Amino acid sequence: DGLEPGAGHAAEALYVSERARARNLLDLLARAGASGAELGAVRPLRVGEIQRRLLDENTVLLEYALGIAGDPETDRSFVWLVTSTGVEGHLLPKRVEIEAAAHRVYELLTARNRVSGPRRRELIAQSDAKFQVEARELSRILFSPVAAKLTGKRLLIAPQGALQFVPFAALPSPDVNGGGDGSTGRQGEGGTEGQKDRGTNYRSGAPSPLRPVAPSPRPSVSYTPLIADHEVIVAPSASALAAIARQTALRRPAERSVIVFADPVFSASDDRVRRAGRRGSSAREVSEIRREHS
User: Fold this and answer.
1) Shortest CA distance to 25 belongs to which of 214, 243, 196?
2) CA atoms within 13 A on the CB side of 201
3) What is the pTM of this model?
4) Dihedral (Cα; 260, 266, 270, 275), 10-degree rounding
5) One digit per residue, pLDDT tens: the chain, 294 residues?
């Protein structure tokens, strides 16, 4: 769309992304033994259907597609912003850069599940501080091209690759006022260095203003997670979310509700695993004694 404003390339590219994700989801459902009706409910949606079925004036979709690492021709990542009235695509850094940033955020966030010993609290505090720095950088990469259009919106996010490990709700809210150097807005063949991909308004066909990725923000004492300003919903794709909503609407309402608060265990070295093991051994011993005396 940067070369042919109004041609609808952003909408078509988004449909290609949705089609690929629908194929992957169908493969997973088929392996899980899903019924024909469930498989039939999953089909790729075009932009108009996404807007009608999922979006309103307070809800936007952010769908990410990562490039093919190692191939200079195809290693171009994108984010599509879909609102109730339009769609625009923005060029992002290469897949290897995005996934490296995502892995750093994930490793720092889960560091507390792997550290032990007398310095555990100190190491956790260090990891938490580093997490904020890396999370700000990842937020800048992922959100700055569209930050101005996210204020006050419910966010439907469809990640890909290593981004599926990212807790988007915990990332800091993007800097709406950040400037840009255009370094990640490099177009493909025929593009202009430093210029980012223009988005296209799907209904009016008018090109959106250039919005390059902003530079890294200065360190800040405050840290406001995305969930504080937005409702955040993460799904495999817009088409999958529409299929889930359809299946939920057909389901008979549950008679009761349940709220679950959980503190999951991610490592076998977690103290709770060892305590559970000791309790299990004690329970087995008591059971054996009871059997012997029965």
Assistant:
1) 243
2) 8
3) 0.69
4) 50
5) 544 444 568 889 998 888 888 777 666 665 666 666 666 666 788 999 999 999 999 999 999 999 987 777 778 899 999 999 999 999 999 999 999 999 999 999 999 888 888 999 999 999 999 999 999 999 999 999 999 999 999 999 999 999 999 999 999 998 877 543 333 443 333 333 333 333 433 333 333 333 444 444 444 458 999 999 999 999 989 988 888 788 788 788 889 999 999 888 877 777 788 777 776 655 565 455 455 445
* DSSP string of 62-85, one letter each residue: EEEE---TT-TTT--EEEEEE-SS
Q: Are residues 44 and 244 in contact, defined by beta-carbon separation less than 8 angstroms?
A: no
In the three-class reduction of DSSP (H, G, I as helix; E, B as strand; rest coil), residue 248 is classed as helix
Are 80 and 63 in contact by the 8 Å Cβ rule? The answer is yes
